Amino acid sequence: MSNQGTNDTNQDTNLDCSLAGYDYELPPELIAQNPAVPRDSSRLLVINSQTTGSTTAPLQHIFRDLPDLLRPGDLLIMNNTKVIPARLYGRKSTGAEVEILLLEERQHNCWLALVKPGKRFKKGSKIFFEPSSSLPSSPLTATVLETDKDTGGRLLQFDIPDNQTLVQILDKFGEIPLPPYITASQAADEQYQTVYAQQPGAIAAPTAGLHFTPELIAKLGDRGIKQAFITLHVGVGTFRPVEVEDVASHQMHEEWIEVPADTVEQIRATKQNGGRIIAVGTTVVRALEGAAAASGNLQPFCGKTNLFIYPGYQWRIVEGLITNFHLPRSSLLMLVSALIGRQRLLNIYQEAIESQYRFYSFGDAMLILPEAKMVVGNGG
After folding, report:
1. What is 87-175's CATH number?
2. What mean pLDDT comes out for the span 237-250?
3. Which CATH superfamily is domain 27-83+186-372 in?
4. Structure pTM?
5. Among 80, 134, 127, which residue's Cα sits nearest to residue 102?
6. Which part of the chain is CATH 3.40.1780.10?
7. How far apart are CA 208 and CA 35, in angstroms?
8. Tens of pLDDT along 24-52?
């Protein structure tokens, strides 16, 4: 009997580190193509104990119930990044049509971008963009400087007057890029932004935050549940599947983060007063845990993190999590597994599928309360 238990534990541990352990089947019709209206009318699965998803089922709520599910004195940490119109369509001097997806600015007006079709983007090639809106603007040009080996993308130098940046004029040329699994959406651009988006730079929304409305935020405040902000500019790597079978050998992409001093102070005060730190989305988890990992404890931080969180990780800051449902074999699925356990998470996903929850960016949400967090004996 004890040998069987040991074998089961070993098998679970092996699957925790195996890419195959993070697979699940999702009916395509459950991939949400449009957001809930109003935003806070999405469904919410609540994980409220260490047995939820193992011996008991998650509680089913509506997102607007959130103030009643948290405690006065809790602190919600939100990502105030803003999605930029990062998809551009242009032409080469030959007239060939090309498509650009901006990833990140490497130097002043010099951007790393994914390009289609890639073979047409050789060093020195010029791309010409016409304004995509009715706003008056001169044409925009960019020159290919080199190929980026890590992403297969190109470094593009945009020809822009010195007193301007590409981000300042992007709304005249680009469009908000939706994830590739959203193929039939009627969503307006503002529906793919959080209501508290402030800092331009992301190419994808921090989707757990899409459920909040100004009214819900006000109600949370009235209940004594406070908010603080970090910035993490979400990149395309967030959505890319892990491709190595041994999860531990996965090299996480870097993302730019800022954890300001006032947020650090709010976190410290909350913990001292017995409140709990609830991350709104996996991007907030990466920012807080990445900042803490950089110095051994949480300090104000501005820079890049490549922290990869998977089962066995020893948590430093985050106690609870609000998150959407994530793609199979993704680093995000592994991050949430580190909080509550891989098999338990897969059980919860199966229940969500059977209950017809909506998945991915425009889908429904989960609330993992601190009392549901798995206790981990060693770091990973």
Report:
1. 2.40.10.240
2. 83
3. QueA-like (3.40.1780.10)
4. 0.92
5. 127
6. 27-83+186-372
7. 12
8. 999 999 999 999 999 999 999 999 999 99
